[in-house]
Amino acid sequence: MSLCVLKCKEVYNPPSTKNNPDILVVDGVVIAGNDSTIITLSRTKSLTDSAPTAKEIEARVSVIDVSGVEYALTEQGEGRYVASQLPLDATTSYQLKIITKDGNEFRSDPGKVNTSPPIDSVFWQQDSSGVQIYLNTHDPGNGTRYYQWEYIETWEFHSAFDSFLEYVDENNIVFRGLGNQIFRCYVTRPSSVIEVATTTRLSLDTVNRYKVTEVPAGSEKITAIYSDLVKQYEITEEAYNYWTNLKKNTEQLGSLFDLQPFSELGNIKCVNNPSVKCIGYISFSTLQKQRIFIDYKEITNWNYHPYFDTYQPCQLLTIPIFLVSQAFQPPGGPYGNSLIGQGLDTTHSPVYFYSTKTCVDCRVHGGVTEKPLFWPN
Questions:
Q1: Residues 115, 224: one domain?
Q2: Nearest CA to 277 among 267, 265, 264?
Q3: Cα within 13 Å of Cα(95), Cβ side
Q4: How many domains does the chain have?
Q5: Using an 8 Å Cβ cutoff, are 279 and 56 in contact?
Q6: Do residues 347 and 260 both lie within one domain?
Q7: Using one digit for the tens of pLDDT, what is the confidence trace for 107-128?
Q8: Domain containing 312: what range?
Q9: pLDDT of the residue at 121
Q10: What is the spatial distance between Cα 236 and Cα 84, in angstroms, rounded to a whole number?
């Protein structure tokens, strides 16, 4: 006989409707002690508005305890407010406090810090549809019962050709230093999906083989090295109900954009003007996390089609040294090509090897060249 855990997988797109634009949306978990707390503030928009979601800037965000002690979060831009290692006490109640630049003050319902048990394991398996990533966890004291997970994916990808030379101008072609390489790039993406589960129907507080996410077959994510950092929080029954009800509303009405009126706003209220709405649910918890790496050599039959071959295969071209500047017009850039190296042609006159930036510079595809600190050598 097998037992399964009730679970909810919900894409967290801030709700917006024609009649409810400009509502504050609060996203994040207040973490006690062992990691940074990151709270993101944004605004809903009308369905007819094609502009990107507006980030809430110039707000004052803090965590406050029942005695009035306040821990400020620092604004980092793009609606992100951060505090590192908040010294929260498990016996004390806390609130998230937000004062927006329009003068409205929002507070979450008071809550105590939940203590998450460790993650037992994070592991993966490949099947015909791709790579599935699972976790196991349990609370030996049977006291958690409600879980929430997030994950952060990081992956390495490569351009078609490695560039060893850099074109500065026609009189200045230099060797490309290790700190300026453009062959190897990295992408980091936080999950846009909220994962919650409960073990209340089980005799033991155990989660087995919970599917956190998947990487579809052929994805660029596993063409070099892929990493997934899984984060686990203990949440309350009320928080669990919020996310599962949100899932039900989404299934019935089509999407979060169709919620009208909003039936599940969360646990954050405007204290100076109750008619002003806010969407989001703030939990207070310790954090447990575990990271895994997957090397492309461990994967079979992946069938990846490179981004740089979308329109035509990459080609290695040559040009004589006295014509090299013609491949890098206009003077001063931006350049449509990148140098790869230098060699000799059949007549023994120097030539340079080059190709298009799409085939040489991985940054064209949206990656960054700075290797993460946790990345394997």
A1: yes
A2: 265
A3: 19
A4: 2
A5: no
A6: no
A7: 999 999 999 999 999 999 999 9
A8: 165-182+307-365
A9: 98
A10: 23
